[in-house]
Amino acid sequence: MTRPLLLSVNVDHVATLRNARGGAFPDPVDAARAAIGAGADGITVHLREDRRHIRDRDVERIRAEIPAPLNFEMAATEEMVGIATRLRPPACCLVPEKRQELTTEGGLDVLRAGPALAEAVRRLAGAGIRVSLFVEADPAQIEAAARIGAACVELHTGPYAEAPPEARGPHLARLRAGAEAAIAAGLQCHAGHGLAYDSVGAIAAIPQVSEVSIGHFLIGQSLFEGLPAAVRRMKALIAAART
Ligand SMILES: CC(=O)[C@@H](O)[C@H](O)COP(=O)(O)O
Ligand SMILES: NCC(=O)COP(=O)(O)O
């Protein structure tokens, strides 16, 4: 049976643009509203430790004002676990974070993470939050995610999406195997990072993947066609690949 594939729109980079001028415009909460109005199934934000784009108040407002599931991306730190257990989003995705990186550079090393990661998963799950771990499509990492109590993994699609189309085959094969490993381990399987119109179809065609989160491309593309149109086009590409 083919699972439905949900699209969660990441609005981080609306906040990047807002913060460039220090005011309130453009508002990531308005962008979230527009994305949901255009058919997105949920909203993703990554509250980075340095607050370079999304800020605490944005997350609070999205929780209060947007009637759609929030996927809250965060590092597995004491501060972030505290925020998540206070706001109780339906879903959290734990990601590795480096202060100097421009964006997330790889998946969590769950195998070598030590007890702090497992403890963060335990506390978040105990607050009723579905916990996902952002990992490479490596069966050993995926099985380790299941062992420490995650409900879900998000497979890192960056290397696939950033490769030239003719070089994507091996990346895609790894992602397909990773999706099979996730389901075999009893996990839900999501995918994300760097996806765009030209790369989403092959991911949407992996039947085990039940959600994709897409941000940077959609927010950039909205300059040319508007956010609602970009979300509708992405949803149409996903639907076409899924049938
Ligand atoms: C986990 C992931 O791939 C993305 O959500 C990424 O963390 C986005 O972070 P930036 O929006 O800061 O690039
Ligand atoms: N989890 C991936 C995400 O939220 C969006 O990543 P990107 O499309 O901004 O690269």
Can you put this structure into words, describing what you see?
- The chain has about 240 residues and is of the alpha/beta class.
- It is built from eleven helices and eight strands.
- The chain has an eight-stranded parallel β-barrel, surrounded by eight helices.
- Strand 2, helix 3 and strand 3 form a beta-alpha-beta unit.
- Helix 6 packs parallel to helix 8.
- The longest helix has 16 residues.
- The protein is globular.
- Bound molecules: 1-deoxy-D-xylulose-5-phosphate and the ligand NCC(=O)COP(=O)(O)O.
- 1-deoxy-D-xylulose-5-phosphate (DXP) binds next to loops.
- Pathway: Cofactor biosynthesis; pyridoxine 5'-phosphate biosynthesis; pyridoxine 5'-phosphate from D-erythrose 4-phosphate: step 5/5.
- This is Pyridoxine 5'-phosphate synthase.
- Homooctamer; tetramer of dimers.
